[in-house]
Amino acid sequence: MLQLKDLLIQFAIIIIPVFLYEMFWLSRYHNTSPKQNRLLVGLLSLLNIFICLLYPIQISDNMAITFSILLMYSAILYGGRVIGIIVIFAKPLFMYLLYDISVLKCFPFELISCILPLIVSPQWVSFSRRKKFALSILMPILYAICIICLLYYEATVNGVKEYQSEQTILSVCIFFTVLTITMLFHVYLREFLFENAEIRVQMQKSEKLNMVSELAASVAHEVRNPLTVVRGFIQLIENQESGTNREYMKLVLTELDRAENIISDYLNLARPQIEEKKIINMTEQLNEVTTLMSTYASLQGAFLQVNVTEKMFTIGDRAKIKQAIINILKNGVEAIKETKGYIKIEANIEKMRDREYIRIVVKDNGVGMSRGQLDRLGQPFYSLKEKGTGLGLMVTFSIIEAHKGTIEYLSEEGKGTEVHILLPAYHMEEENTEEL
Ligand code: ADP
Ligand code: MG
């Protein structure tokens, strides 16, 4: 006599509180990651247990059963032990109010089956997805075993004919199958909606951050123009002044340059996206950058050596890649100071997991870095230099990341630094390479 209609009604009653919870709690504005609202979980469970009991599933003439146990599990797991225990003991009260005391035969077994959720409840949040799903299948199965034992006892010891009929046995089997699926679906929905709410909060946060950084970028841009004007005039006056004033002017000029550097580094940072996507001839690019930097390097007492002959191509923004490499080379030169060191640039194609990458290695024998310094690389305004901005590497990191590449620093204090950059390689047909 198990009816599909009854099963569907019970199914709906179990799923509805999840959506109500989403509507009343998760979809509200949260400033930080949302927390479970235990009280609401408890209240919704109580309400729906009551509705569950109003529309029980009639298995046979004298046997009716509901999905309410699932709401008890859910209340224990998501509402905590205290809320769970309140909900567990509210059920017999509801049954007493709606029917009479004789229907309480199952209750001790329900109580036993609640032991497992009560045990795992405090750790439930920290469980992995898979463990949660496994447990939410196990719980209804344990309940089924309890109830089937009860029915078996009634059928054999007390000789209740009704429980021996094939139809009843079939109905009970179907009932417990649907019960298990419902529990799994209930937990899945809860987890899914909760995760969604968490993602929403994170998105709101990053949206805010985006707005602020865009605002800052436009301010930085506006500040640069007056700076240029000031710099021009100071330079004009400097030529006419003499003595201490001239020294002061020089100081003003260097500080203005520093401000200018910070602003242009910041602006590079605020626009890390690749603006153009073109085929870049890395061999050419590396040689070009080295030529560009070699005068600066030799002035600082460093020797720049490039060893790249293999033809390599990647796709991206030429100017950005150039900027990234210049930042790294500049750091290398600055690390060498007066000790007359070298900076070596090497590059080759490397195959990794069926994909080809360009590995660029920039090696210097400068001051090197300690473990702690290495960990802080790429953080904004982290600089050990008197005139450093601490933005160069942050820009470099974000450029490499935007090109789907990786960057790694190996360094030893006093010995030197090795920078490894991996960029996805692009395959050029032979005839096309000539045109570039
Ligand atoms: P800045 O160069 O303006 O200080 P960066 O972001 O370019 O800022 O670099 C941050 C810090 O990382 C530097 O101040 C320096 O201490 C350290 N660093 C970077 N590259 C090297 C290197 N090749 N050798 C030693 N230290 C380095
Ligand atoms: Mg730098």
> How widely separated are the two ends?
79 Å
Question: What percent of residues adopt helix (DSSP H or I)?
Answer: 55-70%
Could you tell me the mean pLDDT? 88
**Major sheet size, sense and barrel closure:** 5 strands, mixed
Poorly predicted runs are none
Number of helices: 13
Q: What order do the helices and strands follow? A: HHEEHHHHHHEHEEHEEHHEEH
Radius of gyration (Å)? 35 Å
Overall, the morphology is elongated
Tally the structural domains. Answer: 3
SS content category: alpha+beta
Strand order of the largest sheet: 4-6-7-9-8
Beta-strand percent range: 5-15%
> Compounds present?
adenosine-5'-diphosphate, magnesium ion
Q: Got a strand count?
A: 9
Descriptive report:
- It catalyses: ATP + protein L-histidine = ADP + protein N-phospho-L-histidine.
- With 436 residues, this protein is α+β, with helices and mostly antiparallel strands.
- The chain folds into three domains: 4-204, no CATH class; 205-270; 278-432, 2-Layer Sandwich (Heat Shock Protein 90), CATH 3.30.565.
- 62% of the residues lie in helices and 14% in strands.
- The chain has 13 helices and nine strands.
- Strands 4-6-7-9-8 form a five-stranded mixed beta sheet, covered by helices on one side. A two-stranded antiparallel ribbon has the order 1-2.
- Helix 2 crosses helix 3 (68-98), helix 8 (244-270) runs parallel beside helix 12 and helix 10 (318-336) runs antiparallel to helix 12.
- The chain is elongated, with a radius of gyration of 35 Å.
- Residues 327, 330-331, 392 line the site of magnesium ion.
